[in-house]
Design a protein that fits this description.
Elements lengths: L1 H32 L12 H19 L3 H29 L6 H6 L12 H16 L4 H4 L7 H28 L5 H5 L9 H14 L3 H34 L6 H4 L9 H15 L1 H4 L1 H27 L17 H18 L16 H23 L10
Helix pairs in contact: 1-2, 1-10, 1-12, 1-14, 1-16, 2-10, 2-12, 3-7, 3-10, 9-10, 10-12, 14-15
């Protein structure tokens, strides 16, 4: 139960961060479409961004309320869009750019002039791992959808593995294509540039503007990215709703009977709208403190990985002999890979708790240890004091 509670909380935070980043991107597209910051372009304030965020979540909730057959079509469209879009962008952007970085710059340069006081190359590399870990999160969506998947005992694990492999290959190519179009990192991060410091948007915009005198092509490319992020947020709401549904089915949520209801198409609509509402409420913290909001969503990555590692740890320790493997398993390598996974998560938990800027102030302090540790402590105490007396584990709803 503790793992489920921990996982559910951070899944909602991931949805919040994905849709909020899309809202910010739309805000930047509006800015660039009206001439950019250097051309008196107009962008919305934080209330406009939160309004866009709410609209995106509303659309995601509507889509996820459709029958599963329609949702499956959206999922297939999302997969095709991501793969085709990434290949187009990774080739188009460096080809259009009039200035390209050298291979030496792309593969060996470390930006030590980043304005946050971090100059050690090893330390910069370690901090950079956070984004790669964030990018690969969410592969457990296949597990959340197993109750609606044919031959789930084999197709579920295959979906997890294939999503990781595809993300690594396609993502690596995309990053290479974009970084070859980067020549002036400080300018990309400068909030006075056309895109207001939104680096990827500035790369796309400059690539087309430098060659054609207009950044319209770059704005269209940003639209391609925006649609991909939209599909990502849609899938994230799907995962959230299924997690909330499974959790309430086992009686482990307040008002479980309400969140566990499904409509005539067997879609947990109440859980879908709950997920959208919780994610929107989380985003409201950005109105009071953007630092607090960024801290909340950034630690979602490490929170998710801890939730992944806990059952693996129990599998390779307490349940090593009693665990019954399913039809899709790693055989004799399962325990070894399990330990590698646990040790890796333990390592990144420490690394991602390190300061990301110096000198350390209230605004630059890394709140990961406090937030993750606090939630983990609350979860453990809730289990020890109450939940272990009534929670009996997942409820079986099928016959052997």
């Amino acid at each position: 139960m503790g793992t489920l509670c921990f996982l559910a909380h951070w899944l909602w935070a991931v949805t919040t961060s994905v849709d909020f980043s899309l809202a910010q991107l739309i805000n930047v597209i509006i800015l660039l479409s009206s001439g950019g910051r250097n051309g008196d372009g107009v962008s919305g304030d934080k209330y406009v961004v939160i309004g866009i965020h709410g609209g995106i979540l509303f659309l995601h909730a509507l889509i996820n309320s459709l029958p599963i057959s329609y949702l499956s079509l959206f999922g297939q469209l999302a997969a095709a869009w991501n793969i085709v879009g990434v290949f187009v962008l990774m080739i188009l952007i460096p080809c259009v750019a009039t200035e390209r970085a050298s291979a030496k710059f792309v593969f060996t340069h470390f930006n030590t002039d980043n304005g946050d006081g971090v100059n050690n190359k090893v330390y910069i590399f370690v901090l950079g791992l956070l984004m790669s870990q964030y990018t690969i999160t969410g592969y457990d969506a296949s597990a959340h959808m197993t109750e609606e998947t044919k031959n789930a005992d084999t197709n579920g694990p295959k979906g997890i593995i294939s999503s990781i492999v595809i993300s690594i290959i396609v993502g690596w190519g995309y990053i290479l294509g974009i970084t070859f179009a980067v020549t002036n990192i400080p300018y990309l991060l400068d909030e006075t540039n056309d895109a207001g410091g939104y680096a990827i948007a500035e790369i796309f915009y400059l690539a087309f503007k430098s060659r054609y005198g207009s950044g319209v092509g770059g704005i269209i490319c940003l639209g391609v990215v925006g649609v991909a992020i939209f599909f990502c947020g849609m899938s994230s709401v799907t995962s959230n709703s299924r997690m909330a549904y499974a959790f309430s089915r086992d009686g482990a949520m307040p008002f479980s009977s309400f969140w566990h209801k499904v409509n005539k198409h067997e879609v947990p609509v109440n859980a879908v709208w709950l997920s959208a509402l919780v994610s929107f409420c989380m985003a409201l913290t950005s109105l009071g403190s953007l630092v607090a909001f960024n801290a909340m969503v950034s630690i979602a990555t490490i929170g998710l990985y801890i939730a992944y590692a806990l059952p693996i740890f129990l599998r390779v320790t307490l349940a090593r002999k009693s665990f019954v493997a399913g039809p899709f398993n790693l055989g004799r390598y399962g325990v070894l890979i399990g330990w590698i996974s646990v040790l890796w998560v333990a390592t990144i938990t420490v690394l991602f708790s390190l300061p990301v800027a110096y000198p350390i102030t209230i605004e630059t302090l890394n709140y990961t240890p406090v937030a993750v540790g606090g939630l983990l402590l609350i979860t453990v105490l809730a289990w020890i004091l109450r939940a272990r007396h009534w929670f009996k584990g997942p409820i079986t709803n099928i016959n052997e």
